[in-house]
Design brief:
Number of domains: 2
GO molecular function: nucleic acid binding
Largest sheet: 10 strands, mixed
InterPro entries: RNaseH-like_sf, RNaseH_sf
Structural class: alpha/beta
CATH superfamily of the largest domain: Response regulator
Distance between the termini: 36 Å
Number of strands: 19
Protein name: Piwi domain-containing protein
CATH architecture of the largest domain: 3-Layer(aba) Sandwich
Length: 518
């Protein structure tokens, strides 16, 4: 891109503040939770009901780790090449002290699965069939529990051995394994033609339901649990890395330090079991709603139809996921557009949900995505919104090094730096040197986001307003307890949500809270 040098304006946005208990504020989630506690958290200690599914070893690892989680986990001492003061790390004081919730590790609802059964299932020749079989070993234990036991579970924790991670992802190669024949041909990747289905009367067409899903264990679990409860998947080696050593006596995996693992898992545990998120953005503009739109190709669809989904995030920071209509929305190699009816229906559903929560429609509705909008769908969006609601379309795209900004000193550009190109386009560095932490957490010179204001129903908002909103949305990832993310939540989790919605077991049902997908 060529632009006149005189038009460049470098700006900086202050770090967004977060609200915690007692109307206290902090820039860092860890500081706020440690000092004040969760925003709108329980007034007295609340016990959460956790169900754990895993091998006997996996459940044992979870129990021993849970005891450490309740008692507190310190940050390990710095290594020879590390700074003495590592402000991005923090001791974990304990689940009760930090979040005001607790559970008894010895009274967990633990459901045991056999390692040998998992190992055999991972060896089935057809990848779709193998992953489906492994996922069913876990999910059928949950279904059996729900049929036979009383009492509800707030969150299900799935503790998996390393072979599940190594063999049950789309990129898994299973090189060197002795594979066994299953019910479907080894190289089959989609449903057979109808003529083949009726060649043999003994053929059960339900066998080929496995091809309605991507062969990914995590997506299987999340899709199945959408109608049950929030879920969390943990590798055994994350909970107890010292139990998995190589020949030299070192852990096979390089994991985050135990305190950081505790912060991240505990934050997700709180978010998935409580009514409100652990923190919220300060100084939010009233009446503003943010939507992240995503398109995903439907697997095994002969018409090449696409699923469209919208994630709605409110000023509180929490979100709801809506499924739009499936259809021929792919109009080019990288272009997706809804027709007028689908666009109108999707936005009306989102606005209705907002109205249910706030008793009135939003004043401003920002649609974040990585695609543009054509005239037909944009006019439908505008018609679906009430007269007083300003709809704004914003494209947010990561860049791959086409723009770099450097500053004097040992560290790169400061997070929150923006380079305005014109009234509609700007670069925004959501990652970079953070003065509060006195460090930059990244492997290379940070790349900015390219932000473009595409369209607006009424007045076009100021670019500073759009960029400030994006900065805030990088701080409400409740699946971890990081200082910030590089992408706003509307874009960061779009792919993850879409991956789950296109799974066969997730295609029915209405809007679900965002906590079910992460």
């Amino acid at each position: 891109m060529r632009f006149p040098e005189a038009s460049l304006i470098v700006d900086h946005f202050d770090e967004p503040e977060l609200d915690f208990r007692h109307d206290q504020r902090s820039h860092h989630p860890k500081d706020g939770l440690f000092l004040y506690g969760p925003h709108d958290g329980p007034r007295k200690l609340r016990e959460v009901r956790i169900g754990v599914v895993g091998t006997s070893d996996g459940i044992g690892h979870f129990r021993s780790w849970s005891r450490r989680l309740l008692s507190g986990i310190p940050v390990p001492p710095p290594g020879p090449t590390e700074k003495k003061d590592r402000l991005h790390l923090a001791d974990f004081a304990g689940l009760e002290e930090t979040f005001g919730i607790t559970f008894d590790p010895d009274r967990l609802r633990s459901l045991t699965v056999e390692f040998d059964a998992i190992e055999r299932a991972t060896r089935v020749q057809n990848m779709h069939e193998a992953v489906d079989a492994v996922a069913r070993i876990y999910t059928e234990r949950v279904h059996k529990f729900r049929r036979n036991e009383e009492g509800s579970i707030d969150v299900w924790m799935f503790v998996v051995p390393e072979i599940v991670y190594e063999r049950c992802r789309p990129e898994s190669r299973r090189t060197g394994l002795t594979l066994v024949a299953g019910k479907t041909p080894k190289k089959q990747r989609a449903r057979s033609p109808q003529s083949f289905l009726f060649m043999d009367e003994r053929f059960d067409p339900r066998i080929e339901d496995v091809f309605d899903d991507i062969p990914d264990f995590r997506r299987h679990i999340k899709a199945t649990l959408l109608s049950i409860a929030p879920s969390q998947i943990l590798r055994e080696s994350t909970l107890e890395p010292t139990a998995f050593l190589n020949s030299a006596g070192y852990p096979k995996r390089t994991t985050q330090d135990p305190a950081t693992v505790a912060w991240n898992i505990a934050t997700g545990l709180y978010y998935k079991t409580q009514d409100r998120p652990p923190w919220r953005l300060s100084n939010v503009r009233e009446g503003v709603c943010y939507i992240g739109m995503v398109y995903k190709n439907l697997p095994n669809n002969r018409d090449n139809h696409v699923c469209c989904a919208a994630q709605m995030f409110l000023s509180e920071g929490d979100g709801v996921v809506f499924r739009g209509a499936n259809g021929p929305w792919k109009t080019g190699k990288y272009e997706y557009h809804l027709n007028a009816d689908a666009a109108k229906e999707l936005l009306e559903t989102v606005i209705e949900a907002y109205r249910d929560l706030h008793s009135e429609p939003p004043k401003e509705l920002f649609i974040h995505g990585q695609a543009s909008f054509n005239d037909e769908e944009w006019q439908a969006f505008c018609q679906a919104a009430p007269k007083g609601t300003n709809v704004v379309g914003v494209r947010i795209r990561p860049t791959g090094g086409d723009a770099k900004l450097f500053r004097a000193g040992d560290y790169p550009v400061i997070r929150g730096t923006a380079l305005s190109l014109d009234e509609k386009n700007a670069y925004l560095w959501t990652s970079g040197y953070v003065p509060q932490l006195d460090t930059y957490i990244g492997p290379e010179t940070p790349n900015p986001l390219m932000v473009t204001i595409l369209r607006s129903k009424h007045h076009k908002p100021e670019m500073r307003t759009v960029l400030a909103d994006i900065m805030g949305l990088t701080k409400i990832n409740y699946n971890s307890c990081n200082f910030n993310d590089g992408l706003p939540v509307t874009v960061r989790f779009a792919k993850m949500v879409g991956d789950i919605l296109v799974m066969g077991s997730a295609r029915e049902g209405g809007p679900q809270p965002f906590k079910y997908y992460i």
